[in-house]
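Input.
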Amino acid sequence: MWPIDTPPLLLSLLLQQADASSPPPREPPATESSGFFSRLRPEGGVDVYFGHNFNRPANSANFIPGTGTSAKRDSEVAINLASIGVSVAPEPVGFKVLLGFGTGAEVVHAAEPEGVATGLDVWRYVQQASLSFANGPLTLEAGLYPSHIGLESFQSQLNWTYTRSWMGELSPYYQTGLKGTWALDAAWSVQLQFLNGWQTLGDNNRGLALGTQVAYAGPRLSASFNTFIGNEGPEGSDGLRLFADAVATYAVTESFKLAATVDAGTQAIPGAERAVWYAAGLNARVQLTEPVALVARVEAYRDADGLMTGVEQTLSGATLTVEVKPVEHLTFKLEGRHDRSTADVFASRSTTDMGAPVLKDSETLIVLGATAYY
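Output.
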């Protein structure tokens, strides 16, 4: 310390000299979240199943054509989905690339429009590939990303049951386009999307589709209202599709949860009346002990004009699932499922003279699925 009687001018000179001789202040160390490589996260997993169909289908295929993104093959150990990828959280720019292989990946991409530089052979292994940008309440995402519609995910570990509902199978698991999400506050958000179409990377016409969402996430209740508006007819034909989907999950207690879904859709059909379909489902989940949960689901799906399933029918089903999670990142699900239709749509053991399976109006499955993920 300098004496208290040091003259002001001398004190000023001494302070300047001290500042000049001191090392420059260090820059504050960068936080972990600010570095690109510190935000890089690997992701992946393997989803394996064995399913037994009491119909013993001649073609070894469970469910109806175009569906079965889980447990599609009968009476064999099969890989539903093996995935690997990386992601970077948007601060403000990020991305995610996830590749997927297996029976589920084949089913989910089966309806890709075929054309120049597009189709099943081009996109069959791509599960997600998107860029993202976040700034305050606004988040933008462009590319291939999970759909905003429905309760269920394409990844088994994120669902209550192992097999998917008819509403999940007959609505998009993924979409391609540009998505903007605006967080109104801690609970409410809104979303607008410009899309190529209904679960497609390529498009079969030149018109873009619109998707919207209004979502609420509270401490016990989570809910969303989702829409899709777009032309799903082939090039040059009228096929405007209007679709609405409502999802709600409610925690009755810490160990007991309910989830409900309702769908309704209509589409213009050239030279015919508009096609209509609607559906509803109810799910209940009880956490019995720390590693064990019991899940039940009932559902009904009315395809009044056969647009979504290829047959005019009403599908109904009931599912009971026992989930065991012995350690983190490993889940086993033992499931019994019975489905019934007002039409003959499920393959049986018998075959026609042409070798095709004879169809029945019901199907019962027992499935054991194991999913390991990180």
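The first strand starts at residue 40 and ends at 53.
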